[in-house]
């Protein structure tokens, strides 16, 4: 899934932001602590032509080949401009000179926009740096899992208080088949007769219990996530959910979409545990997502989970900002 257009922290220089148009970076970078403008940056002015020296007047510039003319036999001095950081591309000798035996530079009449035919496109040298959305590092899977377990413990206590009577009534409806099953185990009875049916209200009680449990989870998580991007568990583990495009509150609509993907499958626990399986897949999905470690509910709401600093001088602080 591609990242939506917007201003993001430049992975090549975490102290700046650049505009991502859905396919690549455009425009000049701005400092990371400056509020970006609305929409894409204005087009950059055309650079003024540089005066040509008598020695180079006989050769046409690489970017301005005359119509129908013959391209230069070799690359100009220095590596292609697409190389990140201005370094020498893989396979080039030091100094930026073209290797011996290189293929022809460009077909006649074409304008160079990348490496010549037969050359691999320059890539990031080595392993690219980890993303820092809005200048903050991504939260680890362990921190996210710990925060979620704390939140589940709180929701479980709420269910014990509110749902306890319904659970007790449900167990009463199951007492006949449970007692008969336990008797057969103790007596080693190998009869194949079916167990007694559960009470008439067992099915309605299951639906009621799941509805209450889902409602309690929604009431606990969505308002706090909408306001601050944090539940109680996330506050303890110092992680926060933020939108991909800006360091801002999620808002109720985005927080509800984020919770729906993980919380609503609770209603499907009645269907042979299908809901629990879907929630398990969602919980483990950040382990397999790169580079932003988004869970399925993060992708639905276009959010990322970041780690907050513990002290004002923590490296997780964006330049010029203390949290």
TrEMBL record:
Residues 1-131 are annotated as: Disordered. The chain crosses the membrane at residues 149-168, 202-220, 262-281. Residues 138-301 form the RDD domain. It is found in: Cell membrane. Residues 37-52, 73-82, 113-131 have a biased composition (Pro residues). Residues 53-72 have a biased composition (Low complexity). Keywords: Cell membrane, Membrane, Transmembrane, Transmembrane helix. InterPro entries: Pra-immunoreactive (IPR051791), RDD (IPR010432). The keyword tRNA-binding does not apply. It is a multi-pass membrane protein. The keyword Transmembrane helix applies. Pfam families: RDD. Its main location: membrane. This is RDD domain-containing protein.
């Amino acid at each position: 899934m591609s990242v939506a257009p917007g201003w993001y922290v430049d992975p090549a220089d975490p102290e700046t932001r650049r505009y991502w148009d859905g396919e690549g970076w455009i425009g000049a970078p701005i400092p990371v602590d400056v509020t970006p403008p609305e929409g894409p940056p204005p087009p950059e002015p055309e650079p003024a032509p540089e005066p040509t020296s008598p020695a180079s007047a006989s050769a046409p510039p690489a970017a301005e080949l005359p119509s129908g003319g013959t391209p230069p036999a070799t690359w100009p001095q220095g590596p292609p401009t697409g190389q990140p950081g201005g370094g020498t591309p893989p396979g080039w000798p030091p100094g930026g000179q073209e290797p011996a035996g290189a293929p022809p530079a460009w077909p006649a009449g074409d304008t160079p926009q990348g490496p010549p035919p037969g050359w691999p496109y320059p890539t990031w040298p080595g392993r690219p740096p980890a993303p820092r959305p809005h200048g903050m590092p991504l939260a680890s899977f362990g921190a996210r899992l710990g925060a979620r377990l704390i939140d589940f413990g709180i929701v479980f206590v709420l269910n014990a208080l509110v749902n306890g009577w319904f659970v007790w009534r449900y167990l009463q409806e199951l007492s006949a088949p449970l007692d008969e099953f336990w008797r057969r185990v103790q007596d080693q009875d190998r009869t194949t007769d079916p167990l007694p049916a559960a009470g008439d209200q067992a099915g309605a009680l299951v639906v009621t219990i799941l509805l209450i449990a889902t409602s309690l989870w929604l009431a606990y998580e969505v308002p706090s996530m909408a306001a601050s991007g944090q539940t109680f568990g996330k506050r303890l583990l110092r992680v926060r959910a933020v939108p991909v495009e800006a360091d801002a509150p999620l808002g109720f609509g985005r927080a509800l979409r984020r919770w729906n993907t993980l919380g609503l499958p609770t209603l499907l626990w009645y269907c042979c545990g299908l809901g629990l399986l879907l929630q398990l897949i969602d919980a483990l999905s950040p382990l397999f997502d790169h580079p932003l470690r988004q869970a399925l509910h993060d992708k639905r709401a276009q959010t990322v989970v970041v780690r907050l600093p513990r002290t004002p001088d923590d490296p997780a602080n964006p330049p010029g900002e203390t949290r």
